[in-house]
Automatic annotation (TrEMBL):
The keyword Nucleotidyltransferase does not apply. It holds the Pfam family CRAL_TRIO_N. This is Clavesin-1. Keywords: Cytoplasmic vesicle, Endosome, Golgi apparatus, Lipid-binding, Membrane. GO terms for cellular component: clathrin-coated vesicle; early endosome membrane; trans-Golgi network. The keyword Phosphoprotein does not apply. It is found in: Cytoplasmic vesicle, Clathrin-coated vesicle; Early endosome membrane; Golgi apparatus, trans-Golgi network membrane.
Amino acid sequence: MIVTRPDIGFLRTDDDFILRFLRARKFDQAETFRLLAQYFQFRQQNLDMFQSFKVSFSLMDGFPGVLENPDQHGRKILILFASNWDQRPNENSFTDILRAILLSLEVLIENPELQINGFILIIDWSNFSFKQASKLTPNILKLAIEGLQDSFPARFGGIHFVNQPWYIHAMYTIIKPFLKDKTRKRIFLHGNNLNSLHQLIQPECLPSEFGGTLPPYDMGIWARTLLGPDYNDETEYTLTYDALHVRENCGGGGDKETMKR
C-alpha cells in the first residue's frame, strides 16, 4: 500500500513503527494504512507547526500533565488544566500546546504496553474564562481533532471533562459533528460530579485535584522527565525531535542528545 502512494513522504516504515499503527486500528490493514498516510500528511500540511518546536513553557504549565501510574486498566492518564492556557499570552499559543501534546504522545507511544492499553485524557475546565474560550476558534479545534483523532496512532479509552462551564458545552456542540462515533461515545462530561468520574477511573489512580487519593499534581514532573534533569522553570528550551517525522529540511533534524531527551 505504501508504494502505491509515492506522493506521500513516508519517512519511516520499519516494523516497530508500523506496528503501533496496526495496534491503533486493531490490525485492520485498510484502516491502518489510512491512519499511517494521514499521520504523514498532517505533518506535511502543517509544516509551520513543526518547524519551530518550542515546547518548554507549555510543558511547565502542564500541557500536558502525565501521571506516573496508569489507571486500573493499564491506560496512561494525561491531564490538562485548561485555565493555565493564556497565562503567558506571548509564549503559550494553542499551537505550542498542541505541539507539546504531540511530542509527549510520540515519546509515550514508544512503549508497546501503551500502544495496546492506550490513554485516558482528563481536562479540568475550572476557572477557564469565557474570554479564553472565545479563542478556541473552529479552525483551532479542527486542527486539534485532525492531529489527535485522525492522524495519531494512539487509542484513547476516554476523554473526561470536569468542572466545565456552559460555554464549553456549547463548544462541544460545535465540534461534535467532526468527531467519529467512536470518539463521541468516549467523551464524558462530568461537570463537578467527581463521583461519575470515579466510577470510570478509580480514585487511587488520581491526584487530589480530581478527588483522588494521590498528592496534588506537580506541573514540572513531566517537563523534567522529557527535557532532562537540568530542566528548571527559569530556562527556556527549544526541542527538536526527529520522531515527529518531519523532513529534515523542514526543521525535523536535531542532534542525537536532543533527540534522546
